[in-house]
UniProtKB/TrEMBL annotation:
The keyword Mitochondrion does not apply. Keywords: Signal. Residues 1-31 form the signal peptide. The lineage of its organism: Bacteria, Pseudomonadati, Pseudomonadota, Gammaproteobacteria, Oceanospirillales. Residues 97-286 form the Polysaccharide lyase domain. It holds the Pfam family Polysacc_lyase_14. This is Polysaccharide lyase 14 domain-containing protein. It comes from the Bacteria. PANTHER family: DISAGGREGATASE RELATED REPEAT PROTEIN, PTHR40124.
Length: 293
């Protein structure tokens, strides 16, 4: 895939270090099949301030990560939680609430590879049923000195069957809007929507540090069927980093937003993606928001 550089807005004063270091370079790497005119910087305030909180899933008090996920996130669709997830107490997160530590064992990449690393699960909160717009926030903390290698997946919003792994999003079967980390911690939106199959959007719009919590905030607004007017926005630590317009998520009104697609692993697949040693990342403070009107 050929990559182009797309200019973004100039950074404002007071940006946190994780964002400022990237924003000082006024270019974000961009896939060549994304229309540059559809990209920009969010002008709206963070979506958590404009939407109503409808769900705050968190690990249950179960003694192991697998049960903590199944009970706390009310999910029956999951992988890797029995081997690669442990529950963190509120004292371990330092956030006043529990979290999850996801392990990426040495030599692992995607869940389809020989040796499984990371974990995944899906939520479907009743409060989001039929939602055509939604907001997700959560916090991630990569272990100190985390080796980002070539990249890996991070959670995001989804609908329908949540296409991934090279599947085609056809407008009826669903969409997924995960994030990724890339080399040296560069961040991006990684989307499966109509005409975009696993597409990198806005790579380098921000940079993840290691050893500290980072707050991710994602808003998506579905398109009207037959129109290319969908929207995605991202904020990092409260600062705007990426807006994409003119997205086609769906071709039928029956496809709506279902919830959180928790998905994290190294890859891609293959030797060049695999983590060279045992590593982990922590996740906490999940919140889902629906529109106030």
């Amino acid at each position: 895939m050929i990559l182009d550089a797309t200019p973004l807005a100039r950074p404002s004063a007071g940006l946190p270090l994780a964002v400022l270091l990237t924003a000082l370079t006024p270019w974000a790497v961009q896939a060549d099949d994304i229309d540059e005119a559809s990209l920009g910087m969010p002008q709206a305030e963070v979506c958590s301030a404009r939407y109503i909180e409808v769900d705050s899933p968190r690990p249950s008090d179960a003694g192991n990560g697998h049960d903590a996920v199944r009970e706390g996130f009310d999910t029956r669709r999951h992988w890797g939680t029995d081997k690669n997830v442990e529950r963190l107490g509120a004292g371990q997160t330092g956030l006043g609430e529990p979290g999850l530590r996801v392990h990426y064992p040495e030599g692992t990449s995607s869940p389809g590879d020989d040796k499984e690393g990371g974990a995944g699960f899906y939520t479907e909160p009743a409060a989001l049923a039929g939602a055509e717009r939604a907001c997700l926030t959560y916090r991630v903390r990569f272990e100190p000195g985390f080796d980002f290698v070539k990249g890996g997946k991070l959670p995001g919003l989804y609908g329908g069957e949540a296409p991934s792994g090279g599947e085609t999003a056809d407008g009826e079967n669903g969409f997924s809007m995960r994030l990724m980390w890339r080399e040296q911690g560069q961040g991006e939106l990684y989307e499966y929507v109509v005409d975009q199959k696993g597409t990198s959007v806005g790579r380098g719009s921000w940079t993840f540090p290691s050893g500290q919590w980072v707050t991710i905030e994602q808003e998506i607004v579905l398109n009207d069927p037959g129109e290319a007017n969908g929207l995605a926005r991202l904020w990092i630590d409260g600062q705007p980093v990426l807006e994409q317009r003119d997205i086609v998520y769906r071709t039928t009104p029956e496809l709506t937003i279902d919830g959180l697609m928790f998905s994290t692993f190294f890859g891609g697949s293959g030797d060049e993606w695999r983590t060279p040693r045992d590593q982990y990342a922590d996740f906490a403070a999940f919140r889902l928001y629906g529109p106030s009107d």
